[in-house]
């Protein structure tokens, strides 16, 4: 790392996320968002890993996430007892975008979207409680989180759908700015994060998250 702090830590980011009326496109996931929904990868600022491409879209029913991971040579790693330690994408969302707090509130959420979870199991979405939260948000049932996935020879493609009912406080007409963070974890390729890495407590500190703006 060139400096004592990662370059990505020195800035606050706000990213536009485009509207897509036709979501979800299947009964569960986002069914492969096209390139115009691509989310910026800031990893090059710190020479971080860039093995995953993430895409986001929204409508008044919820948020869609597409992720493609490339470059794998080994099978997916999964721990049925620890979704946050399994290969997949994790997202943190604050429906109130409260950037000044260091402990999660009731509008903060942590989701794990996994292409596989356990031997012979298919894709799954799991919401986990956020450590040290000052207020707890209701945890969604996994059946309400839409996930589809295709495992390829060099990785996987995953589509997730987070309906508004699993996002406490989701109201895109009144609140168009959401707090957002992501981690793509891979036992073989490493960890790709939005900005800072595991040296920082982004898993439970919303002040380290960025902003997404729900645009048309």
Tell me about this structure.
The structure is a single chain. This protein has strands at residues 14-17, 52-59, 62-69, 88-94, 108-114, 124-128, 146-152, 155-163, 177-186, 190-193, 210-214. The chain has 216 residues and is mainly β. It has a single domain (16-214), classed as Immunoglobulin-like (Sandwich). The strands form 2 sheets. Strands 1, 4, 5, 6, 9, 10 and 11 form a 7-stranded mixed sheet that branches. It has a 4-stranded antiparallel sheet with strand order 2-3-8-7, with no helix packed on it. Strand 9 and strand 10 form a beta hairpin. It is globular, with a radius of gyration of 16 Å. The termini are far apart.
Which descriptors apply to this entry?
about 220 residues; mainly beta; Immunoglobulin-like; seven-stranded mixed β-sheet; four-stranded antiparallel β-sheet; about 0% helix
User: Which radius of gyration do the C-alpha atoms yield?
Assistant: 16 Å
The percentage of residues in β strands lies in 25-35%
Helix/strand/pairing category: mainly beta
What's the domain count? 1
Summarize the structure in short:
With 216 residues, the chain is mainly β.
């Amino acid at each position: 790392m060139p400096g004592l702090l990662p370059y990505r830590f020195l800035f606050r980011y706000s990213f536009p996320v485009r509207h897509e009326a036709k979501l979800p496109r299947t009964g569960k996931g986002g069914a492969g968002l096209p390139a115009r929904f691509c989310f910026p990868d800031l990893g090059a600022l710190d020479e971080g890993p860039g093995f995953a491409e993430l895409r986001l879209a929204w409508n008044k029913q919820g948020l869609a996430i597409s992720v493609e991971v490339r470059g794998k040579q080994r099978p997916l790693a999964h721990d049925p007892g620890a979704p946050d330690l399994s290969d997949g994408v994790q997202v943190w969302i604050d429906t109130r975008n409260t950037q000044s707090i260091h402990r999660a509130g009731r509008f903060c959420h942590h989701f794990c979207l996994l292409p596989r979870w356990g031997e012979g199991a298919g894709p799954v979405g799991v919401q986990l409680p956020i450590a040290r939260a000052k207020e707890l948000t209701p945890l969604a049932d996994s059946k309400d989180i839409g996930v589809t996935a295709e495992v390829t020879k060099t990785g996987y493609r995953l589509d997730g759908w987070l309906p508004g009912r699993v996002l406490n406080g989701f109201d895109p007409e009144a609140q168009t700015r959401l707090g957002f963070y992501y981690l793509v974890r891979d036992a073989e390729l490493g960890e790709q994060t939005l900005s800072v890495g595991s040296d920082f407590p982004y898993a439970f500190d919303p002040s380290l998250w960025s902003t997404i703006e729900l645009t048309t």
